[in-house]
From TrEMBL, chain A:
Transmembrane segments: 26-44
Native species: Steroidobacter gossypii
Name of protein: Uncharacterized protein
Keyword presence, Membrane: yes
Keywords per UniProt: Membrane, Transmembrane, Transmembrane helix
Domain of life (superkingdom): Bacteria
Automatic annotation (TrEMBL), chain B:
Pfam family, one: DUF421
YetF-like N-terminal transmembrane domain span: 12-68
Domain YetF C-terminal: 78-148
Taxonomic source organism: Steroidobacter gossypii
Protein name according to UniProt: DUF421 domain-containing protein
Length: 165, 153
């Protein structure tokens, strides 16, 4: 029979029941915030992550993800201005960015691609002027911050990404 | 966002498939069932992670699954109807030594399985010694011995 004033836990030699501890409540709240942040795109692929960078006059634009994940596919949608009468356009990618990412696919296929001080990609154009849409699939090879500089002719676009491990 | 949606979709699909499969499927795991479970796990992993093997993606997927499970258990606690839909309810399959065949057939249980549970749990030998046998929500069979089961005699 239970002693008056003693709990079942005490009778059974168990620690006193304390309900949810502050640490448990905090951990649960943290989990909820973590998932909401993931939905919002803080860890890549979401509205907070999607961004656009443009050159000074806005003619060259790059749609990219501010946050990406190491070894996960990401997209760069690049809009490059082309000149009337020219049958090709060159896109340069800075060496630091090329060291940190692996380009897995490019559409349209470039006529020529070389890597020296910078990466150089040459694309065919129809000579009518306007813009060329280029889509690059790439994977970050290292976690951390990476600075990209893409240029075509006199247009330059700079943007920064953070790759999660 | 994609990882959260993928994890939620896989959770829902598994919930539906395992509910359709029934309670006994996981309760009595044969070697083939075990292999099948491994294959299901492998297919699920592919769907959950895709080609993104980053640590942050794994954390998002695990967090989403755990959060959904906690959320669903809270909802089940508050709604008896939802609880029954998701986890089903216990089913009496033997009533005072009499087999309830239609319920057994629906749950894919045979007499031998009931006798095994009776022997293992209470050392009973015959159906007449069973007052009730219940197929529990967990998929196990629990036995209530008849008062005059005479197992001690």
């Amino acid at each position: 029979m239970r002693q008056p004033g003693s709990s079942a836990e005490a009778q059974l030699g168990l620690p006193e029941y304390r309900g949810h501890t502050t640490a448990e409540k905090f951990a649960f709240a943290l989990l909820v915030v973590f998932i909401l942040a993931a939905i919002a795109g803080v860890f890549g692929d979401g509205p907070l992550s999607q961004s656009t960078a443009a050159s000074g006059d806005g003619q060259m634009r790059v749609e990219y993800q501010r946050f990406c994940r190491r070894h996960a596919q990401q997209l760069l949608d690049i809009t490059v201005p082309t000149q009337a009468g020219a049958n090709s356009v060159e896109l340069r990618v800075n060496a630091e960015y090329l060291r940190r990412v692996q380009i897995t696919e490019i559409f349209p296929q470039p006529l020529q691609s070389t890597v020296h001080q910078t990466g150089l990609l040459r694309f065919a154009t129809d000579g009518s002027g306007g813009t060329l849409q280029i889509r690059m699939h790439l994977e970050a090879q290292h976690a951390g911050s990476q600075q990209a500089r893409l240029s075509a002719g006199t247009q330059t676009v700079d943007f920064k990404q953070f790759a999660y491990p | 966002m994609d990882s959260v949606l993928r994890a939620a979709a896989v959770y829902l699909i598994l919930l539906i498939i395992l509910r359709i499969a029934g309670k006994r499927t996981l309760a009595q795991v044969t070697v083939f069932d075990f292999i099948l479970l491994l294959i299901i796990g492998e297919a699920t992993q592919q769907a959950l992670l895709g080609e993104d093997f980053s640590i942050i993606n794994a954390a998002i997927v695990i967090g989403t699954l755990v959060l959904l499970d906690i959320g669903l258990s809270v909802l089940k606690q508050r709604s008896e109807a939802l609880d029954r839909v998701i986890d089903d309810s216990p089913v009496v399959i033997v009533d005072h030594g009499k087999l309830l065949r239609d319920r057994m057939d629906r749950s894919r249980i045979d007499e031998q399985e009931i006798l095994v549970a009776a022997r293992e749990l209470h050392g009973l030998e015959r159906l007449e010694q069973i007052k009730f046998a219940v197929l529990e929500r967990s998929g196990g069979i629990s036995i209530v011995p008849a008062e005059s089961s005479g197992k001690d005699s």
